[in-house]
Every structure is written in structure tokens, then in C-alpha cells.
Amino acid sequence: METSKIERVLASALREGALSGVNDDGPALCVFYDLDDLRAGFREVQRVFPQGALHTTAVKANGLPAILKEAKRFGLGAESASLGELVHALELGFEPSNILFDSPAKTRSEIELALSRGVILNVDNFQEVERIAQALGKVKSNAIVGMRVNPQVGAGTIASTSTATSTSKFGITLDEHRDAIFDAFAKYPWLRGLHVHVGSQGCGLDLLVRGARRAVDLALALRGRGHTIDILDIGGGLSVDYAGGDAPPAFAEYASMLREHVPEIFDGTFRIATEFGRALHAKTGWVASRVEYTKSAGGRRIAVTHAGAELFVRAVYQPDKWAHRITIHDATGALKSGPAAPWDIAGPLCFSGDLIAVGRELPAIEPGDFVVVHDAGAYTLSMWSRYNSRLVPAVYGYEGSALHLMKAAETTEDLIRFWS
Ligand code: LLP
Q1: Do residues 239 and 253 lie in contact, with contact meaning Cβ atoms separated by under 8 Å?
Q2: pTM of the prediction?
Q3: Ligand 1 centroid to 382 CA: how many Å?
């Protein structure tokens, strides 16, 4: 997202008091979403994959009702990975047959709910297969049940978000359990889908394509034995370039590699599903936080802000892998420039590691300036931490630079209700 656009939005947010105004004593932290960029992503994913595919947005990446409703309006479904996400998607009116339920720890009652509503379930392990068989004795359902297999194509550059190594906790390891997979499909005709998800961020396109290839090969082999495959879910996992500029995620490049190496995805052999989160959302959001104080400690320059690990826990525990771009804006919203020096950008939380940037070359920072953290639309607010009881910030959406409130800031009364 270009900075000039951010400058315009920030200036109108300041005029409208969205950031409590520089002279007010409010906790000046806001999250902004660019609805034009969001819609462009929804259109792009539909453009590059075959018609009739079920594209879902991963609720874990961005669960804001306004954003999910926009996805629904564009014909997308929802990928849910917990009871909360599932109920949220159902309440927002997503068609159950457009909802995927991927939790690796589904309880009996969660399974019964999903089956009775006709949600697509992806089973994570063989014990869950048996649990579903029992549930189907009680609940009449023609929900599609798919099996999540781990295609064992290896890890990307970030271990904690890679899910296709041979020891990953997700899904059924394909090479290890191949015979048992075939046995399960033979025993249970309601198993009618396959699911792979190779990882999130740091998994190159080649890895994602290899995962899809293995899923298609397995699906063809299952069909060859007379089993039905109604849906082939290739997961999400398309990375974004946090350090890079405004280039949008590479949906088209991914699709063209798939077209070359896994043509069955495009020629109608299977109905496919996707579950993108980060690539749909990361580049559509950013965060503005007022600098409360600046100080120096042991020769380091530190700017104390309201944006820390409660929003950017990744940047804190793996700063080399998840460095979000940061720009500094003055109290009117204008981009600051001038000679750069190394700055630590500190969050408000009570631990020393709460630094969203360390030694970052930035122009001189003063109290009242704004730190803007870019590419913050995915896995930020949805990973909000309750540590130190910070209040969840206000969220604004904008089109052009017209702002509207998507979610009011949490109040101390809301917080007390949370803890009670
Ligand atoms: N499908 C499944 C089964 C997943 O587990 C995930 C992400 C997705 C789809 C969406 O992947 P995406 O397209 O967003 O890469 N805590 C991390 C993110 C973990 C992602 C977990 N699963 C973070 O801090 O960014």
C-alpha cells in the first residue's frame, strides 16, 4: 500500500478524531483496512483459478465480521479451525456447504454440529475418522468429509508455520499411512474429499505445488479404486513479502505453476477448494500507533508506542523472519524523512522483548509522531493477546480515503466483562 494513500487516510483519521487526536489522552492505536485492495484480492483469486472452485478465506487470518461479510458478498466461503470460528461463520450467514471445518482437535459435539449443519469437515487423523463414523450413526448428514493428508514435501523457511514435514502435527502422513488411507476410503464411502495444507509463510511456490501434486496423485489413485472425490482442497499458504514494497501476492504466478505441474486442477478433473488467509489479507491492512515517549538507554534510541506484541507477537519472537515495514509520520499524518538513525520501536507490554523493530534505520522520532506498521491485515488482530489487559483498538475500513468505523475500540467496561 503506497505511503501517500496511508498519509491521506491518516490525515482524515486525525481530522475525524479516530486516533483520539494528538492532544487528547486516548490510547492512539488504530487498525485500518483498505477495502479496495481487499476486493482486488478476492477478484484475483477467483480470476486465476477455475470457475466453480470453492475459495474460502481463513477466518484465523482475519475474523472481522465486516471483512468476512465482504468475502461472502464476493462468493467466498470460510475456512474455520475452531468451534468459535465455525459458529462465527455460520452466524454471519455463510452457506454451510461453503464452510470448511479444519480443527485438529474436534470434539464429539463439534463434529455433530458440523455434520448436522452440512459443513465440510476435514478429518485430521484416524481416530477422528472413527469418531465421525460414530457421529453419523446419530446424525443424518450428507456433509462432505475430506481427509487431511500430510504430503510430506518438507519445510519452508519458518519451522513453526511449516506443516508438511514428516513429523508435523497436522493431518495423516501420506507415505507412512498410505495403505490405511485406502482402507479408510474403502470402509467409509462418506469420505469424499482430500485436503492438504503445506504451511503458511516461508513455503515457496515449488513446495506448495509439490503438495498439490501429491494430493492430486492420491485423489486419482483413490478414484481409480472406485472411490468418490467430490472436493480437493489445496489449502492456503501463499506467502507475502513483508520486507518488500506494495507488490500484491503472487496468486497468478502460483496458478500458472499449478497449471503447468498439476493440470488436473484446471481441466475439470476435480472440484478444488482453497483456504487463503495471509495472501488475501496481509497487504490490505496497516496499523497506526502514536509515539508516547522517546528515550535513550545505553546509547540506543527507543520510541515507546502502543503497538507491541499484543498485535505483532511474530515480529517479537522471530524479528528476522517477520520484519514488517515501518514508516514514521508526523502529528498531521505526513511521512517523515530526513537523516536516518537506528531506532528500537517498543510496545507497551511488560517484558523487555516487546520490541517490534530493533535498530531499524528511521528518521528522527518525536513524541506525538505516528509509527505506521505495514502489511498488518492478516494474523494481527486475530492473534490479539490479553496480556497487560490492553484495550483492543478501533478498526476502520476505507475506500479511497473515506473512513468508516468497522469495530469500535474496546472500553474498560468491555474488558471487565471479559475478565469476569
Ligand atoms: N488452512 C489451514 C489448515 C491452515 O492451518 C492455515 C494457516 C491456512 C489455511 C491459511 O494459511 P495462509 O494462507 O494464511 O498462509 N500464527 C501464524 C500464522 C499461522 C497460520 C496457520 N494456519 C502467524 O503469526 O502469522
Answers
A1: no
A2: 0.97
A3: 11
